[in-house]
Specification:
Rossmann fold, 7-stranded mixed β-sheet, alpha/beta, Quinone Oxidoreductase, Chain A, domain 1, 6-stranded parallel β-sheet
């Protein structure tokens, strides 16, 4: 099969190459997926670049997320799963078979049935972003009737956080940095959109809601002042990324706000929570509650350019098309 591979970490155009390698066979408890689209996330270029180092056994195929059709199953897996359209999560976690290839193999729970009304492009966009959004929203209890602030509402995590929060009965405020991104957040269903670069951003949030109950945060260093200003003692700020400089915590201000901070790295989340997230996302797909972001398509031969697009903060979702 054809696959994008790297044997060492470094810049995309220096280490990524397209190779012909042996097609993998599913082992016990695994399925093989003929990949149609491979989703590219920041975690993928960071792993490839060495920003977040990982061990490489001979070679690594990048990308955790994807969508396609199961064409073979291993021992212990229902043969009836052959032919299922699925979305894939954590494909490259703990193994070499990421989704930037014509086939991947994953434990069967990581290949989730994709409802008929959902496109393969949407399926490949889920995985890390949607499951991160789910954990950030629900790890501290239900949000029905609560107010949620989603920082970076135009990004993939932000997009799915808005949609999942609305589905769960929350009111949603999204912060963005420009009108184009504001339009995307509003289209996803945000009740109120605020440009966080405006001097009056805090007042704009408070004009909509006196305080917020849950904050889904990607840049605590840049946004901590705003987060504290709109918090109350029951607010939980959940940080899922380290964009920008690390914050210097103003301890007294955090005490005054009775701030509660939770830090999330999806790879360390309990498997039960990940299975719950996958199940809830599947139900949301069946209901038509999740939608596609604007898509930037690349061929397999353009995988390095796809990584550069994500590293350059492309607005929308970057996908590598394989079939």
């Amino acid at each position: 099969m054809r696959a994008a591979v790297y044997e060492r970490m470094g810049p995309a155009r220096e280490v990524l190459r397209i190779a012909e390698i042996e097609r993998p066979e599913p082992g016990a408890g695994e399925v093989r997926v003929r990949v149609s689209f491979s989703g590219v996330n920041p975690t993928d270029w960071k792993g490839r670049s060495g920003a977040t180092p990982r061990s490489i056994e001979d070679f690594q195929i990048p990308h955790h997320d994807g969508a396609g059709v199961i064409d073979a199953v291993g021992e212990g897996v229902d043969p009836g799963r052959v032919g299922e359209r699925v979305w894939v999560w954590f494909a490259a976690s703990g193994q070499r078979w990421g989704t930037a290839a014509e086939w991947t193999v994953v434990p069967e729970e990581r290949a989730v049935l994709l409802p008929g009304g959902a496109s393969l492009e949407l399926g490949a966009s889920l995985g890390v972003p949607a499951m991160t959004a789910h954990y950030c929203l629900f790890s501290d209890g239900p949000i029905d009737g609560k107010t949620v602030l989603v920082a970076g509402g135009a990004g993939a995590v932000g997009h799915f956080a808005i949609e999942l929060a609305k589905r769960a009965g929350a009111r949603v405020i999204a912060t963005v940095s420009n009108p184009e991104k504001g339009d995307l957040a509003a289209k996803a269903g945000a009740d109120h959109v605020v440009n966080y670069t405006d001097a009056e951003a805090v007042d704009e949030v408070k004009a909509f809601a006196e305080h917020v109950d849950r904050i889904v945060e990607l840049a605590l260093g840049k946004n901590l002042e705003l987060d504290l200003a709109v918090s109350h003692p029951e607010t939980v700020t959940v940080v899922y990324a380290a964009d920008g400089p690390d914050p210097v915590l103003p301890v007294r201000a955090c005490m005054t706000a009775n701030a509660r901070l939770r830090f999330v790295l999806l790879y360390g989340v309990a498997r039960a929570a990940l299975r719950q997230a996958a199940g809830d996302i599947c139900e949301a797909l069946k209901e038509g509650a999740l939608s596609e972001l604007p898509v930037h398509r690349f061929s397999l031969e353009e995988t390095a350019a796809a990584h550069e697009a994500v590293e350059g903060h492309a607005v929308g979702k970057v996908l590598v098309e394989l079939a």
